[in-house]
Each structure stands twice: as C-alpha cells, then as structure tokens.
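Hi Q.,

Before the meeting this afternoon, I wanted you to have the magnesium ion prediction in hand. No need to reply - just skim if you have a minute. The sequence and ligand are here:
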Amino acid sequence: MALNVDRPCGTFDRNYYQAMEIFRTPLRKFLMVAFIVVMYVFAFILDDYLLSILIVFCAFSVGMTGLQIITGYAGQISLGHAAFMGVGMYTVAIFQEHLGFNFWMALPLAGLIPMLIGMLFGIPAVRIKGLYLAFASLAAHFVIVYTINNWRSVTNGTDGMYLHRPAPLLGIDFLIDQYYYILVLTVTIVMIYFAKNLTRTKLGRAFVAVRDNDIAAEVMGINIAHTKVLAFGIGCFYAGIAGAIGGGYYEYVNVEWFTLTDSIWYLGFLVVGGLGSIFGAIAGAVVWKTLDELSTLMTPLAEALLGGMAFYASAAFSLVIYSLIVIVVLVLEPRGINHRWQIIKRSYRLHPFPY
Amino acid sequence: MAVDIRNVAKKREQRYSYGLTLLRESIEKDRDLPTEDEIFKKVILKAEDITISFGGLNALSDVTLELREGELLAIIGPNGAGKTTLLNVISGFYRAQKGEVYFQDQKITHFSSHRIAAMGICRTFQNIALYTGLSVIDNIIAGRHPHINYNFLNGMLYFPWARREEARQRQIAEDIVDFLEMEQVRNTTVGMLSYGLRKRAELGRALALEPRILLLDEPMAGMNLDEKEDIARFIIDIHEFLRIPIVMIEHDMGVVMDIADRIVVLDFGVKIGDGLPEEIGKDPKVVSAYLGATGERVAWKIS
Ligand SMILES: Nc1ncnc2c1ncn2[C@@H]1O[C@H](COP(=O)(O)OP(=O)(O)OP(=O)(O)O)[C@@H](O)[C@H]1O
Ligand SMILES: [Mg+2]
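Predicted structure with the ligand bound:
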C-alpha cells in the first residue's frame, strides 16, 4: 500500500477543523498569500500587453473551473462550454444595452442565465452518459449560436455587441487596464475560493460520488438527477462569469468567438491540466492561453517566411501544436499537470528518502 | 478453515473502545431505538409476493420476506438463486413485476432509490461499489449526505454554520472509522486498499447513512479467516449496540449458523425455507438444494 503523504511529516490535525482546511501548513498558507499579493502587484509593474494576457488567464481559469466541476468532479461531458461563456458575455451586453443595467448589476445575471440554460441542457445527463451525452451537449452549442445569430433585435446578430466596463468607483477608473485587471483578479480569486469550498463540502462529494459510481450514489441516498443537473448549472455559472469578465475587457462581444473548436479545446486542456482538481483547471487554462499567445507571436515570423500563406499557416500551426500537446500529455501523464505537481510535492516531503 | 465464533467473542471482549457512540447519539436524535418488547415482534420490512424476471428467466417468483425489529436475518441459496435481486428490489434499484415492499407499514415499492436510502434502508454491494476516487473518510462522509443540513450555497460560501456542520459530520465519520479499526488508512484513496478493507469501508459508508435496516450482500465473500472474523464482530456489534435489524446474504454456513436469528433459503427464485438456524440445518429440502453433494458432511457439521 502506498505511503500516505498527503502533507509534510510532523503535521497532525489537532481538531476536525484542521483536517478540513484548504492549506494545512503555515508554509502553504504563506505561499498562497504571497502568490496572491504578487498577482496584485503585477497590476502596477506589468505593461498593458502582459496584463491582457493575465486577464485572459484569469477569465479562462474561471471558465475552466466551471468545466472542471462538470467534467472533472461530476464526470459529465459538455461540448458547449465555450458557448456558455458567450451567453455570459451577451447577457452583460444585452442587459446593458436594452435595460440600462450597469456592469455590477449585469454580472450576477451573467452567471445566473447561463446557469439556467445549462441546467436545461443538463437534463439529458440524467438518462444518458459518455459519448451519447457528448452528442446531446452539442445541441447546447448549436442552439445558443443559432439564437444569437438570428435573434437580431436583441443580439445584433453577427455584428456583435458592445459591453461597458463598470463606472469609476472610489476614484478607480476601470477603463484603465491595470484597474480592470484588479477587478478581474478579484472576481477570479473569489470564484476559485467558492469552487474550492464547493469541492470540500456536501455537494462536491456528491459530484464525485456520481462520477465514481452513480448507481451506488443513488442507492446511498444521493439524488443523482438533481446532482447532475446542478453540476451543469454551477459549471455554466462559472462559464458565464468568465465570459462577463473577459468580455468586459474587450468591451465587445461577437458570436464568432465561441466555436465548437473552443469547446473541444476546453475539454482537451482540462485533461492536460488534470481532471478532478481546481489546480488542474487553472494549469490547463494557463497552458492553453500561453500556447494561444505564442502562436500569435509566431504570426509575424510566419509572414516573413511564407508571405500570403501566413494566415493559414499560423492557424494550422496552433491546431497542430495544441493537438500535439494534448496527445503528449495524454501519453506521458494521463492524469495531467496536477498529478505531476502532486508527485513533485510528495518527493519534496519525502526527501531525502525516495519512498 | 471456518470462522470460530469463540474467537470473535474473545476479540469483542478485548476491545477497549467501541466507537459508534456518536453515531448512536445522532441516530437517537431522530428516533428511539427499538424497545425490548418490540424486538422479534414488530415487522419493520415486508417484501410481499415479489416476482421479477429477466427475459425468460424467473429471478424471483412470489417471494415473501419479513424482517422484524432487532432481527439478524440471513438469506442463503446457491449462485443465481435471486438473493441479490431481492435486495435490489427492496432498495428500489430493480422494479418488481409483481408484489409490494412495505417499510414500517408504508408502501415503498415505487420510491426512488435515493429516497429509500434516505428513509434508512441502507446496503452494501456484492461487488464493491465505493467511490473509488475518494479516501476512506470521504467515502464515509459522502454516506452522510442525506443527514447533512445545509444547502450547496452555504457550502460554497463556507459559512460558519456550514463549517461547524462539516466538522460534526467528520466527527461522526471518524467515530465510524475508529469502530471499523481503519484509523491507519482513513486518508487513503479506497482504490488503493485491499479487498477486505474496501469491503469494510463499504460497511462504514452504509453505517454513515444511519440505517434503520441494513442489507449486507455477502459481506465476507473473498476474505481470509481473520478478516471474516473481524467483519462478523462488526456485524454483531452494530446489531447489538445500535439495534439495527440486518439482512445478510452469506455463503459461509458456519457464520450464518452462528450469528443469524433466522434463515431464509432461496433456490431458483423460489423461497424453499424460512426458519431458525437449527430447523434449516435439518431441513432435507434445503440440504439437498443448497448444500448439494457435500450436504451430508455439512449437515453433520451443523448439527
Ligand atoms: N440485470 C439483470 N439482467 C439479467 N439477468 C439478471 C439481472 N440481474 C440478475 N439476473 C439474473 O437473475 C438471477 C439471479 O441473480 P442474483 O444476482 O440475484 O443471484 P444471487 O442469488 O445473488 O447469486 P450469487 O450467489 O451468485 O450472488 C441470475 O440468473 C442472474 O443472471
Ligand atoms: Mg448475489
């Protein structure tokens, strides 16, 4: 049996509250606080380009956390996750444009409306599983994209819509990217903290129970229909919030941003990051968007080398690289970056004895 | 080697701590444990004329089963006799084509499984069905699900009362871990445990549900002697200390004869025997159906 090293030696729980902590050692608590502080300090030392990358990291970490809840925790597949992000963006835009909501009022709705739609499309999951469910979830993607494209009076069709960042608050002008970044970072931290709480409490355990053995879960008193639908709902809530904070950055949204391919990469990089952990979701999002950025950086190079072909070349390049990364990770570390990270932590704790 | 009930008794005496006190407190908050004069008298579960077939195969034909308060009922029968199917019907996992199931005089035939479980009909599975990705303690806390009193929003926001409730649930779960002597492996993912320990964890999860009655499907199958004795000990403890009526499917005749209050015999989906262990051991029909060619030898051992 494997040695139990889920924490450094010498760390014992003296009461049940300690056993339930997220960070069980002072060192880990300190590192986490330091990390968060550094992330905030970045707002004042990085240029707008680097901040734009961090904002994208944040938004997609939130979105990926939502997919982690659906897929990694509750074990359900969704091929419509990018579309739900779009619903979040459009919710903000529509409520701002037609009903005069401000950003703060629209933000919760940007979570709740995708949540309701997600629960609706999560209903098939009560009856079907796996590949069949994947096909059923495709319906969500097409229905959402079709609706946005054709409900022109509300959504402007393919022209896209404008979003507005929040008005200045206490002298903080969110039109300045560094302050908007602080807003995005704060929302991200709060959302991830909530997700972490979710996974260590009642519903989170029910999700894992349904994932690991849904028949047993039902016979053990867990209403699996309820649980699955709620997993889709909460996951899509996250997607919507991710969309809202991302869309707020661009101050514009277009239906063409949410393709089926994006939804598939969502799943692919979730696997790269590691299923079943919040850390894995963040790692997956960061790897994905880093590659995105790299492939954009490659475009001038490709143009120099290939001239007019560059556009196609860089599109193909990113697809090939993405696929390669996913395949390599699946082969080398099927349990994703998170698992590798756990192994590294473990060997640090066990040092100098390898076993 | 057969389980020696004297060993089991000795080990029970040697225990210094029992655990389960917190679980018992929690149970007693909801209901009274059965009184002395209800025991063996009041019928708590009744499956009446259950008939179910798969394709052309009659898995159960007109089987009636009664469980009384405080009883430890064993179901025996050859492979494919329909024992597991009967438990599946009771726990709402299979729908009987004919017949009704009553629990405390309430008809539960068409209740969904999770509702039946939340009412207190809890079980273990013949093929272990734990939540493989969770640790032992988390499996047991997951079993507490219907008894946790906060909704998911309180959990997400981790309000103080949710935190307190979590701690209370963890305490009860730890109490069960202590009782099952699994302290060493409490944080180990169940997928990495030995077969015997996984069966034990499953028993723990069923206990966590605060069973009103407990259905055990071959709790000792595939175990070595030591592990069997441990499980027998736990079953007797649960039965005595929490006064939970138990239905146990078991192939080990020695154990069944020693610990069961009553035995029901199934054969090809038909109930062919129902009575005290000593009656069943002598019943020629049962001996020939269940014990087969070696029947004589075993019958001799029983008497
Ligand atoms: N879901 C099902 N579909 C088809 N046949 C089934 C199903 N469940 C049970 N059966 C059949 O019903 C009969 C009774 O099965 P059951 O599992 O109840 O036997 P059992 O008495 O528990 O046997 P064992 O001692 O091997 O566990 C068997 O012939 C089995 O093949
Ligand atoms: Mg069976």
